[in-house]
Structure formats: structure tokens, C-alpha cells
Amino acid sequence: MKPKYLIFLFLLFITYYSNAQDSKVYSLNAEWRIHVGDIDKAQDVAFNDSTWKQVTLPYAWNEDEAFAKPIHLHSTNVVWYRKRLALPTNVPLEKVFLEFEGVRHGAQIYVNGEYVGIHENGVMAFGLDISKVLNRKGENIIAVRTDNSWSYREKATNSTYQWNDKNFNANYGGMPKNVWIHFKPSVYQTLPLYSNLGTTGVYTYAKNIDIKKRKLDLFVESEVKNETNAAQSGKYIVEVRDAKNVLVKEFEQIYTIAAGETKVLQAKDVLQNVNFWNWGYGYLYTITSKITNPNNVMDVVETKTGFRKTAFRNGMVYLNDQVLMMKGYAQRTSNEWPAVGLSVAPWLSDFSNKLMVESNANLVRWMHVTPWRQDVESCDRVGLMQMLPAGDAERDVTGRRWELRTELMRDAIIYYRNNPSVLMYECGNESISEAHMAEMIAIRDQYDPHGDRAIGSREMLDSKLAEYGGEMLYINKSARHPMIATEYMRDEALRKYWDEFTYPYHKNGEGPLYKGNDASSYNRNQDSFAAEAVHRWYEYYKVRPGTGARVSSGGLNIIFSDSNTHYRGKENYRRSGEVDPMRIPKDAFYAHQVMWNGWVESDPSGLHIVGHWNYKEGTIKDVFVVSAGEKVDLFINDNKIGEGERSSHFLYTFSAVKYQKGTLKAVSYDASGKVLNEKVIKTAGEPYRVKLNYQHGKNGLFADGNDMVMVDVEVVDKDGNRCPTATNMIDFKFDGPMEWRGGIAQGSNNYILSESLPVEAGINRVLLRTIFNKTGNVRLSAHANGLLSDELSWSVEPIVSNNGVFVKSSKNNLPSNLDRGEGLSESPLKIKRITLPIKSAVAGANQDKVKGSFDDNELTDWVNDGKMQSAWIEYTLAKAEFIDEIDIKLNNFRSRAYPLEIYVDGKLIADITTKTTLGYYTIVIPRTKGKKVKIKLKGSTYIAEVNKHAEIGGKKLDDGVARDDANAKGNLSIIEIDIHKKI
Fold first, then answer.
1. Average pLDDT over every residue of 762-779
2. Is the pLDDT of residue 216 over 90?
3. Nearby residues of 522 by Cβ (< 8 Å), 6 or more positions away
4. Contact 218/204 with Cβ under 8 angstroms?
5. Spatial CB neighbours of 8, under 8 Å, sequence gap ≥ 6
6. Which of 32, 142, 131, 57 is nearest to 91 (CA)?
7. Which residue among 120, 176, 502, 856 is least enclosed by CB atoms within 10 Å?
8. With a threshold of 0.90, does the pTM exceed it?
């Protein structure tokens, strides 16, 4: 090589590094055009798209159908998205990547007419390297062909996707999530986007966490690529900033990386005075990792993360060294809103997810498919733990469809392994084989070996590998890995139906059959819905941590917000939520708030009166109060009505209360009679005026085409009290640079996109969305016949756009929720009972199966031979002890009653008939000391409650061990038994 040419290369090298610019990322959401329907050559540069509709991402092309149409009627089509792009200035252009947070369902991507990649799982984020096809000067054309067919098949294999399902995966098609463009130099930290790019990005984790000393060892790893023709060296620098953006630690490592090499760099140091991430305490740090050479900072990546300590053992979940009973919701991953679908503004994700925390939920299980980045990051901020699935439907699969699931799990783990709120990875909505579980564990251990996250699946009751399990509609206990109910209580209720005494006078349970079954539980009113929520939760609470060696680790109520997915009631959407589609609470929301406030034990001061106090004179009805106290009294106008009848620990019923205008007050007490709390509701006056209130993100309201304003409209009396029975029609008028998206109510088309809609139970809510690059003042007014009107105004702030890319300000600087406090000094776990070890057992028949009744495996049982004389089993304890209670899980627990006699050391102690449960029936006996406990069937078993509820396909709900016991009236079948001594 000639010396002059070497000198030229050297000068070029020096010039590059002396003028190098560090990496930049911008939103690519703006100024797309769409065409519904396939069209030839739409990827070509010269194609004329001037007549296509202009939209701003995230944007599902069929978003107008959200809650207007039932899920199975969501429109499908091939839809093209096109964008013109001139590259921004002052960015490195050596490497340019596109990051799609997700498309539905498959997408083929073209840049300047060149095919650059495909993505087809319909769920997960993916990346593309477009460096070689970009025009550095002039215009670029990005074209994306999307296809959201329900029967979409992978191009290479012709395989369908198991999770592309009309029951649960609302089909908001096209590009309903964000798109980003990354500009990087030739030596750079990769993106955590394995599909197409095959890269893993930054990984932050902690070891040797000491909660008491607030200390940990912090590790930061970056996968780095050197795409130059020479070896590079310099410093790998890590900066740690706290939630106030104060630099609290800086450390570095020298690196050398060969030409063309991909290498993982690691730096580590001790972090002191740590603020730990916790439930309801979304404390986050910013980790800045930098790649430098001797002259410049080349590449910078910021990672938001938090630090927490977890453990999954003894059937329980530990967070920051404390036992935490899991309480929360199995929420549809779409987490959708009317006329918007999932594509809401970032602050609205926080609003919705924080509401879960405000109901005292600590865990959300996203159902069936991986959530999008906005919701995952939102849970970090609000302090809500997550159970994160890959993708599936209702069963294990094989072949290519199983491979698709493992690939999706891999991508999800890499993308979300820095998010502290992710506590569990879910491999299936039904049990998977042990071989498949081993595959998933290997993926977790390869890509997230230090995240302290459990991996498991629904069911997996007898798995030796799964790190958690749990069924959906009944109770599991375990002394090994935690058992968490993954979706309990599917009952449905409209928010507008208070009770049978309030217009529109919905008789509880009234509605059509569902697949030929009685569907009354899917057509409840709010009184009934709240009471049922209490009954269901109590079955988990009574076997909570601290109640023995085998416990339930909690449960997740399906669902949090009414959902545009499969339904069983008379409306065309799912109404199982504790809040409605616009996140207005139902009474069940407040019931959970009372029951769930505490790490394990409920805060005794919790108290809520179900319903309202505006009735016709002479109305007589039952009043429900939800309380964690030991006694509740009810007063009308300060006159005591009586003491509530307690059931399911938390529900107090006051029967046949006669309405009197004025105040209704509940007072709760502890066991000694000390007042814990009081709540009052009062009769509102006649509707007088319309009242408006609005909110947007605390970080501002920006003209990015996705930011939103949410407006509450209430009908109030002269004193400003909401009128809880008002149903007035509200007419809205607005002026300014925003788009109306409206709300929802029961009526034609569910009032989707209507600018007139009624309040329900005195309140409703609407959304407006900004328009890209349109700023100014907005004025909104609301009118109702016969009532005073109201008016609001606000302004939309500008964004900085650079050749069609911009910084998405509505995503930045959203505050963390720290409302619950650090939570590091909670009371230790209260031990209520000690489980007495069983040494052996003898039975009247099938002696070889007796261990199945106390083996901590709910898929096995002991059963006699069907004859009354053999329907007994006697357990011998390890030693003689006082015995107080027996938890017994009998087969057909949901439907069959068993007349039983209980003997201790040969003495009859109890003569009872069991009631149907969701799993475990507790037999309370007089405290008796003994070593042998005998359970004997004294008479024929019988059907006490018809197992009437069916799955979406007609399958009956699980009712114990699968065996035909229909005519076996002399069968005694015990799945598990726990014998306890109370503390």
C-alpha cells in the first residue's frame, strides 16, 4: 500500500473520531400514510401515495372498532403503511436501525424499494439494520405491508400462530405500537432485539443484595459490535443516577475489541444507600453506559432499571426479604380503551396500571401474549409486579408452533430483563411437558441468569422443574414452589347496574344463556358482583401464607378493566373488570382495596359501603359493607340499625334495611370493641348541573399525535355531590387542535366515537387525542337538557420535529409512583397455624394409594373402592399434638358434599357435612390432643351444587381429579389433607 494512501486513511480515521457524534434515537411515529387493502408495487419509491390517509403512530387502522365490535368481528385485511424520511442532521449515520415495538400480525418491511426484513409473531418488538439501503442525502421511503388475518401463517413454514386467537387477543391491526429510529457509530452497543438483528443489548443486574444494609454489587453488561476494519480500544464507562437524576456512582473498564468482533463488555462496582424498588414504590435508577475511544464518546445507552430482591420457596413469594401474598389481576395484554385500542398515550398506561396498585393489587398477569413496552415500563414506574408470558392459547403444542413460543420467550426475556417489575416468566396458559419446561428454563438461564425471576406455567401442579404454578378457577396449596391462581372469578357486571332497586332496575343474573348454560353469574349487578368478589377472595385468604406448611400464594382476578374480548353476558364485550372500559371504578374495586391492603394480613381499618343512598321512599334492601375489622355497625341518620352478619371474613350483610333519606354510616371495630374506621354516604339532591374535570400527563400535553386528554363528566346536585342514579344524556362540543375519541355507554354501537353519550351512575368519561404538530388552545363544553352546562380549556404544547423524526416528550419524565413508601419495615409473617407432619396412613381400601392424599401433589389422590365400609382413612402423626383444624381437598370439591365423621385416637370429635368450595374445606374441631386422625364417610355423598359454568368451548370447569364419580355415592376421595395446630 502506498505511503500517501496510508496517510490519507490515517487522516480520515482521525477526522472521523475527532468529529464523531454519539448515538441518537428518535420517534419515527409521525407522518405515515396508510392504504387498507393490498396493492401492487406499494413498496416502490415512485409509487404515488398522495391520496392515502395520513396517520400518526401508534395507530391500528381498525381502532374505531374497539368496543364497537366484538372481538371475533374485528376487521382484518392487508394494510400498507408508508413514510417519507429525510435523515436528520447532527447524528451518526454509520449504522441506522429501525425498532418496531410490534405489528399485528405479520409485516414485510421495505426501504427505498428494497426488502429489508419480515416479522410475523404479531406480538414482540423487532429490529432491522437499514444502514446499507438508506440514502444519506435526499428522501427515503419506508413501506410496511401488514396483514392481521386471524388465520395468518408463517411464510417460511406455513404454520399458524397459536396466540392469534379470537377469544382473548383483540385484533388491532397494522402498527399499533411505536416505531423508533436509532443512529449509531460503527462501534456501538447493540439493541436488545434478537429477531432479525440477533443482538442482546445491555443487561443490568445485582448480586449480593443486602436489604438491611442497603447495599448490592451492580453489574452492567453491554454487547458491543465493532463494524470498522481496525481494532478499537478505550473505556467502557457506567454512570448511575438516582430518581432525582443525581450521579451516585461512576465506574469503568478498559476494553479492546477486534475488527468485526462482537463482544460483551462488563463493568461492576458496589452500590451503597440503595433505594429498593417495591410494591407501590416504583423507584428507578438511570444506568448510562458509554463506549469511548481516547478522543470521544462514541455510543451512549440509557437504561431505566430498579433493584429488588426476590425468592420463590416454601410455597411463597419473597420480595425484599418479606413474604408477599400475590394479589392482583389477570389483565388482557391489549389493555385496551374504547375507539383507541391499545394505542393510548404513555401517561394513560400509568393511569390504568396505577389504578391496579390503588386497588391494592401487587401483581398483574398479562394474559396469553407478551405485553408491549409501554405497559412494561409503566409497571416499573407505578410499582406493579408482572407475570410475563410469551404467547399461547390453551394448551401445550409441538413442532413449529412450540418453536415459535420459545423464540417469542427468548425475545421477550432479552427485551424486558432490565425491568424490575418483571418477576415471573410464564411459559403457558396450560401445563406444558417437563421437557418443554426444561427448554424454557434453559432460555431464561441463557439470557437472564441473574434477574432473580421465576419461570413457570399455569397448572404445573406436579412439576419438579417449574418455579411456580397455579390453576385458574380453584385453590391450590403447596409447600414447594408458589401456587398462584392465574385467573379467578370470571363473573361479569355492568357499572351502570347498581342493584334491582335503581334504574334501569337490572334483576341480578338476568340475561341470555351462554352456550346453553345458565349465565346468571355473567349478568350480575354491582351489589352482587362486589359480594361475590369477597366470597371468592376469602377462599384464597383463608389458606394464605402463615396458615401452615402448605399455603396458597394468592390469586389474580380476571380481569381489571372491561375488555373488548370474548364475553359471556348480554353485552358484546367482557365486563369482568373491577373498572369499566374507561377505568371508572365499580364497587368491586373498593372491595378489593379493603381486602388487599397488606403484605399478607389485611389492614383492619379497611372499610367500604357497597352502593349508593338514593332510593325511592319505602325501598327495602340488603346493604353490604366490606370491612377488614371484626365487627361492623350500620347507622341511618346516626340511628343504629344493627350489627352486620359476617360472612367470608370481609363481608357484612344488613338485611332488609328500610331506606330513609339522609346519611348511611358504617363503623368498624376490632375484637376489643375499639373503633377502627367509619364511612358515610349520603343522599344526593336533584341533578342540577354538569361538572367537567380533565387530566393529562404530569409531564405536559404534546402535539405528537398520540398524547391524550381524559375528561370526566358528572351530574351533580347544587352542593356539588354526584347524583349516583343520574343517566342524563350529555352533548359535547369542542374546538381546537385535538381529535375526538369519546367514551362508551350502553346503547347503539356502544356510543363509540359519539359526541353525545349518557352518564351512567352519575358519571362518564371521554378521550381526546392530539394531532401531530398542531398546537394551540382547546375548549370543551358539555350540555344536558335542564341542567347547567360546564366548560373547560387547555393548551397543547409543541414538539421539536427534525425532518419527520422527533423526541417523544410525552414518554419522557413521567413520574414514578412512590405512594406506598419503601415497604422495608413491614410486620413479619404472622404464623396462624402449624401443620402437623403425617408419618403414615392406613385405609379401608387401596392402601397403596394412601400417600396420594398427603404428598403435596394435587394431581394425585386416595380413593376407596366405592363401598361404604371401606370409606375411611386414618392418619398417624409424627407425634401426639393438639389438633384444631383440618384442611381437606376432596374430589369434586366444587359440586359434591361429603357427610363425614372425624375421630382422634378413636374418639368421635366431629360429625359434619362438607360444603362445596373452590378447593379446600376447613373442618374446625374442639382442640384435642392425639396422634391418630381418622376421616370416615358416614353416608352417601351427593351433588350439592351443579358444576354449571363452562369454558369458552363448552368444557366444564375442573372439579378435582379426573374420574367419573357421578354415581359413586360411597366414594371417599381425598386429594390433599393438612392437619393443623392453631397458634
1. 98
2. yes
3. 490, 491, 492, 511, 514, 567, 568, 569
4. yes
5. none
6. 131
7. 856
8. yes
End-to-end CA distance of the chain: 87
Residue 936: its H or E element? strand 921-937
pLDDT digits (tens, 9 = 90+) for 904-953: 999 999 999 999 999 999 999 999 999 999 999 999 999 888 765 566 66
Do 240 and 249 contact (CB within 8 A), yes or no? Answer: yes
Q: With the C-alpha atoms ordered 843, 846, 848, 849, is the resulting torsion angle positive or negative?
A: negative
Phi, psi torsion values for 62, nearest 5 degrees:
-110, 30
d(CA 44, CA 46): 5
336-346 residues labelled b (16+ CB within 10 A) or e (exposed) = bbbbbbbbbbb
The grid coordinates of residue 713 equal: 363528566
**What phi and psi, each to the nearest 5 degrees, are found at residue 956?**
-70, 150
Residue found by looking up cell 419527520 in the block: 804
The pLDDT tens digits of the residues spanning 158-193 come to: 999 999 999 999 999 999 999 999 999 999 999 999
SS (H, E, C) 238-277: EEEECCCCCEEEEEEEEEEECCCCEEEEEEEEEEECCCCC
> Given the DSSP bridges, would you call strands 363-367 and 385-389 parallel, antiparallel or unpaired?
parallel
Find cell 393548551 and name the residue: 795
Q: Which three cell numbers stand for residue 824?
A: 422495608
Q: What CA–CA distance (Å, rounded) separates 389 from 167?
A: 17
Which pLDDT does position 803 carry in this prediction?
81
Mean pLDDT value across residues 396-415: 97
At how many degrees (to 10) do helices 587-595 and 526-541 cross? Answer: 20
- The angle formed by the CA atoms of residues 166, 171 and 174, to the nearest 5 degrees, is 150
Instruction: Please give the mean pLDDT across all residues of the chain.
Output: 95
Total length of the chain: 983
pLDDT tens for 234-263 read 999 999 999 999 999 999 999 999 999 999
